[in-house]
Amino acid sequence: MASTEIARQAGDGVRAVPLAGHVGFDSMPDQLVNKSVNRGFCFNILCVGETGLGKSTLMDTLFNTKFEGEPTQHNQPGVTLKSNTYELQESNVRLKLTVVNTVGFGDQINKEDSYKSIVEFIDAQFEAYLQEELKIKRTLHSYHDTRIHACLYFIAPTGHSLKSLDLVTMKKLDSKVNIVPIIAKSDAISKSELAKFKIKITSELVSNGVQIYQFPTDDESVAEINSTMNSHLPFAVVGSTEEVKIGNKMVKARQYPWGTVQVENENHCDFVKLREMLIRVNMEDLREQTHTRHYELYRRCKLEEMGFKDTDPDSKPFSLQETYEAKRNEFMGELQKKEEEMRQMFVQRVKEKEADFGFCSFFFFLLSDLHEKFDRLKKLHQDEKKKLEDKKKSLDDEVNTFKQKKTAAELLQNQAQQAGGSTTLKRDKERKK
Amino acid sequence: MSSSEVLDGEAEWNGGIMGQQKNLEGYVGFANLPNQVYRKSVKRGFEFTLMVVGESGLGKSTLINSLFLTDLYSPEYPGPSHRIKKTVQVEQSKVLVKEGGVHLLLTIVDTPGFGDAVDNSNCWQPVTDYIDSKFEDFLNAESRVNRRQMPDNRVHCCLYFIAPSGHGLKPLDIEFMKRLHEKVNIIPLIAKADTMTPEECQQFKRQIMKEIHEHKIKIYDFPETDDEEEMKMIRKIKDRLPLAVVGSNTIIEVDGKRVRGRQYPWGVAEVENGDHCDFTILRNMLIRTHMQDLKDVTNNVHYENYRSRKLAAVTYNGVDNNKNKGQLTKSPLAQMEEERREHVAKMNKMEQEMEQVFDMKVKEKLQKLKDSEVELQRRHEQMRKNLEAQYKELEEKRRQFEDEKTNWEIQQRILEQQKLEASRTMEKGKKKKIF
Prior knowledge:
The complex is a heterodimer.
Chain A: H1 5-10, E1 15-16, H2 28-39, E2 41-48, H3 55-62, E3 80-90, E4 93-103, H4 114-134, E5 150-155, H5 164-173, E6 179-183, H6 191-207, H7 220-230, E7 235-236, E8 243-246, E9 249-256, E10 259-262, H8 271-281, H9 283-305, H10 320-355, H11 357-432
Parallel strand pairs in A: 2-4, 2-5, 5-6, 6-7
Antiparallel strand pairs in A: 3-4, 8-9, 9-10
Helix pairs in contact in A: 4-5, 8-9
Chain B: E1 20-21, H1 33-44, E2 46-53, H2 60-68, E3 91-99, E4 102-110, H3 125-143, E5 157-162, H4 171-180, E6 186-190, H5 198-214, H6 228-239, E7 243-244, E8 251-254, E9 257-264, E10 267-270, H7 279-289, H8 291-315, H9 332-434
Parallel strand pairs in B: 2-4, 2-5, 5-6, 6-7
Antiparallel strand pairs in B: 3-4, 8-9, 9-10
Helix pairs in contact in B: 7-8
């Protein structure tokens, strides 16, 4: 019996003990499967390809149903992604299928940014899952997984080689999603051209380092069929929802004047192989790869971007608590530093402003203006005062002069009167003689 | 193989988003998904950790050997009960068992010394510590940047052995279960059930369940299913809780059959006989039907409880713990992001306030200057008025002086006139006399 992962994980220190009878834990896989069936499954496909390559038709054919959608025009200004979710059931298995279509891919004149909206969409689904996983109170077991599990890349049936848009886009997507390239509308290519075309495509992919999805060969029950199928990649498919009568059966086919292309005829195209591989054999592996490889890569990059590490500088592993506490302390420290910086900056600014030429000169101007006014008025006042003083002085002088004159005159008068008096006396005296 | 089916409206499942229902018109093949899942799970293998707790001598090791039909505890690997212990230990034994192509890594966690001391206060502490440390390991592994396949060593089920006293639960039993029912799936068992008659057993069971309900202890509950058959079986099991078990390491021949049992003078108590004890029910439930559910409940309920409590403590470290529960739906990183945004807002506000203070200071200064100017004007005005008054005074004085002067000058002139007239008259008189 092949070794299981658990056995490998347990290592050599664990002893294997024989059982003396039927214990019953061989029902574990059934228990697990029952639970999954009860919960239901979920699968998300992304179809990337130019308008008109038959993406919607192929989905309809693959899932034997008519999905939504009008055929799109070629005049889209950019690439948008439209997603639709459907509930399907086959036997007791419920599948929540989401089909995402790229609208407008390859229609623009400048296609440099075509891949961007696709990458953004894929990343957004990873991000949503990551956010849910990081929440404190989370409900992962009932989370509706929207991550893309498979990307069908539709190659135009030119018969020559891949277009540069194809190479660029696939290169950008190969580390984010399982890419399954398919040759669309392959009924336009003859068998011999097809073989050459496939070889050319495969070699171009290899030489450009594009990693497409390989069907897993590690599980012995499917290893053989998977490795055979790997050699038929990329699958050349034809899609059709119309039925034509062949023999006594109605089959899905495309009718041409020169013959009928039967979708499910393995000689005509690889549709059956695609269906086998994609749905019947490896659907679970596609989901697993998305989760354990592509999502983990996204998560690792995202966390490293945010500065999380697994070990400290001494290569001792961090515990979750340490990591978060360290992050938190760093974060708080940063905030405090910013606050402090802002305060200091403000103080500095005030100082600068006060010493600033602009600030000072304005006030300086006002102040000097004021001082000038003040000086002028002061001078004016002083002049006026002086004038007043002068006038006062001259008045005083005049008064004094006048007073002197007056006093002198009065003195003279008194003298005159005395003299006059004496004269009169003399006259009187003479009379008396 | 598979036939397509027509769907009626179905209830919400697998998350919130409802898709459009579509009928399949032919074979697609995803009905094979369960097989793919089966295949992968077998390839991976399974793991299960079972903890047994109970006083020594209750037959725990024997029961484990009986459950797994193996000599987990054998002379080479003696069970903990045969070793000397002073304090409560927690010991684990790992074995790899294979059956039908399925590998199971089984970990049995034993707790020797539990309840054996005179003072058993806190004897559950090593047990809770062990369970928490396994959660911690898983949390750390899950939170690494570089994650690998994480081994699941969390305790998936705890078999708690109740001594067959026939009366009820002991205080230690109640205390232990209350401390652990939110950390692990507890399945209480009545040990050594062959010491009780069926009636005694019934009564004992009823009493125990009553006490469990009284103390609001949450023992492991079976999940609901849509299957009628299954539900009937589950209800039957629920009626027989707690399961009364008997274990045995010896095989005895009874009626030509080789069975595990305990030989008494009065007969053989068969382990796997449903009339004798509930062992078969336990084994079926624990291993054959509900092993996966025990793991799921541990992962989705007990572990998540531990994790959210741990992360909330780390996130709100030092912050007010009265935050409303709604906050816990964020991740710690989102929490930090929000705090960062709040801080930016705070800083902007601070900056605005500082600008305002700054502007105000500028205004103040300008105002001061204006006031100085006004004051200057006022003073100047005052001085001018003062001067004017003085001027007027002076003018008045001068006027008076002028008047006085004019008057006096007029007077003087009159006097002069008089004097002149007088002297002329005298001159005339003098002339007369001479003749």
